[in-house]
């Protein structure tokens, strides 16, 4: 009964891990391993190909060493041990005089290729260090123990081309020098050279093959990125494997459809713009002929002017300046032009730029993006600071002012078309609510974005960040 209660307590105790905790341990290990794995397709493909090659070569090496080297070394060691045992047997059968020793030494040298020496009785040297690969040491020791059964000492580490063996008898110590290839499979270097050479050849083929297979994918990614930034994709055509060619062909067809849709939209907008401008021009002409003396005519003229500004803003937002080609632009000079425009409108403006000013953008569109942000800052602030930074991968431009700013909860709301804040600063009362929307649309057309934050001047900071 007590044991049952103890088991129940252990089940409900906090010291007993749950099945979720047990499964989470290998999961965390796999997650950590995944974080250390390469992220690129080229590196992962090489890893997939090279890892089996290395494992296969390691298995082959292990099997060869365990089966071939060990068996061959055991046979060679057994043959050498038998020869030594025969010399010892002959020595014990005949008188132990110097002539007998000389004859046995000559027979061992001529017939068995062994250098034998009968030394005075002495203690054997202490055991020396074992070699790193102890196949020979172990095989030879086992054979001498089984076939001769006498105290012995061997040295397989000393002289590289010879193996020294000392066997202690009743009245002498037999010292034997044998060539290493008599007791050991000494052609291991051939296998090692073959193993390393074949691995290098396979890995070289894998690297060259994968490089040619990955390059079309990289070119497709580069073309897609360039098209997303509004840049021209020159000399791009499907290459590589069938699946990569299909993806490249699909991208080219998608690009054609997008360009055709943009062209059709531009044509339609140009037609609408022409017709509406014509009507507005007639209105202005009629109002001019009517005279500007009465108040009603002046109100109509203001309405027509406001309608013209709204029409231009709507068309600019709908057009998106997507038809303009990207080119290398001096951003520092562009910022200076914006500063000069702001100064003419009576706003104190400072400009700074760091890094290489030459950046590939659509110049008119990018200037319009920054001009909208500067114009927005002019409406609500007196002091304006424009700062640019060209880094390795990105161009960042900050427009700071000392105005009232925008609450953090509404900073994304002001980017929606036609949205105005009650206390906001998206546009003034005469605007259309499209300034920030157009700026973000142009920035995203370059592969970047526009974000709002609190300015060091106390107002709003509008930051444009685009890849270079």
From TrEMBL:
Predominant cellular place of this UniProt entry's protein: membrane
Organism name: Labrys wisconsinensis
Q: What is its EC number?
A: 2.7.13.3
Keyword flag Aminoacyl-tRNA synthetase: no
* Catalyzed reaction equations: ATP + protein L-histidine = ADP + protein N-phospho-L-histidine
Which keywords accompany this UniProt record? ATP-binding, Cell inner membrane, Cell membrane, Kinase, Membrane, Nucleotide-binding, Phosphoprotein, Transferase, Transmembrane, Transmembrane helix, Two-component regulatory system
Q: In this protein, which residues make up the domain named Histidine kinase?
A: 271-468
Identification of the protein by name: histidine kinase
Recorded topology in the membrane: Multi-pass membrane protein
Which compartments is it annotated to reside in?
Answer: Cell inner membrane
What region holds the HAMP domain? 211-263
Q: Which Gene3D superfamilies match?
A: 1.10.287.130, Histidine kinase-like ATPase, C-terminal domain
Keyword Transmembrane helix applies: yes
Q: Where are the transmembrane segments?
A: 41-65, 189-210
Q: Name a GO molecular-function annotation.
A: protein histidine kinase activity
Q: Which InterPro entries match?
A: 2C_sensor_his_kinase, HAMP_dom, HATPase_C_sf, HATPase_dom, His_kinase_dom, HisK_dim/P_dom, HisK_dim/P_sf, Sig_transdc_His_kin-like_C
Highest taxon listed in the record's lineage? Bacteria
- Please give the Pfam families that the UniProt record associates with this protein: HAMP, HATPase_c, HisKA
């Amino acid at each position: 009964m007590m044991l049952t209660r103890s088991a129940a307590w252990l089940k409900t105790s906090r010291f007993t891990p749950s099945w979720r905790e047990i499964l989470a341990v290998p999961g965390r290990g796999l997650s950590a391993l995944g974080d250390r794995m390469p992220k690129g397709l080229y590196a992962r493909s090489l890893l997939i190909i090279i890892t089996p090659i290395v494992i296969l070569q390691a298995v082959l090496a292990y099997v060869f060493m365990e089966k071939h080297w060990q068996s061959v070394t055991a046979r060679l060691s057994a043959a050498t041990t038998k020869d030594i045992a025969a010399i010892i047997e002959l020595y014990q059968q005949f008188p132990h005089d110097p002539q007998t020793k000389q004859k046995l030494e000559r027979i061992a040298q001529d017939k068995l290729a062994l250098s034998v020496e009968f030394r005075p009785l002495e203690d054997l040297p202490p055991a020396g260090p074992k070699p790193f690969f102890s196949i020979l040491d172990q095989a030879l020791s086992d054979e001498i123990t089984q076939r001769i059964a006498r105290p012995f000492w061997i040295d397989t580490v000393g002289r590289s081309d010879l193996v020294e063996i000392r066997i202690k008898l009743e009245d002498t110590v037999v010292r034997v020098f044998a060539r290493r290839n008599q007791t050991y499979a000494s052609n291991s270097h051939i296998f090692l050279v073959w193993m390393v050479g074949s691995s290098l050849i396979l890995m070289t083929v894998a690297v060259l093959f994968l490089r040619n297979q990955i390059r079309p994918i990289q070119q497709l990614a580069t073309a897609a990125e360039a098209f997303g930034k509004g840049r021209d994709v020159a000399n791009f055509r499907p290459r590589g494997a069938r699946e990569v060619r299909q993806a490249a062909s699909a991208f080219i067809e998608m690009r054609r459809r997008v360009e055709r849709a943009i062209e059709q939209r531009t044509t339609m907008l140009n037609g609408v713009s022409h017709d509406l401008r014509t009507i507005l021009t007639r209105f202005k002409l009629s109002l001019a002929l009517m005279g500007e003396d009465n108040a009603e005519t002046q109100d109509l003229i203001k309405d027509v002017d406001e309608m013209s500004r709204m029409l231009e803003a709507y068309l600019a937002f709908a057009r998106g300046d997507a038809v303009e080609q990207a080119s290398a632009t001096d951003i520092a000079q562009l910022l200076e032009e914006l500063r000069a425009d702001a100064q003419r409108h009576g706003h104190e403006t400072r400009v700074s730029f760091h890094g290489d000013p030459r950046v590939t953008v659509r110049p008119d569109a990018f200037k319009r993006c920054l001009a909208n942000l500067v114009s927005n800052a002019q409406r609500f602030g007196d002091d304006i600071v424009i700062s640019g930074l060209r880094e390795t991968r990105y161009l960042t431009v900050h427009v700071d002012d000392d105005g009232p700013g925008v609450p953090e909860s509404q900073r994304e709301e002001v980017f929606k078309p036609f949205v105005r804040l009650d206390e906001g600063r998206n546009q003034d009362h005469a605007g259309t609510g499209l300034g920030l929307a157009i700026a973000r649309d142009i920035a995203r057309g370059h592969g970047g974005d526009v974000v709002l934050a609190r300015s060091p001047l106390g107002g709003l900071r509008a930051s444009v960040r685009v890849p270079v």
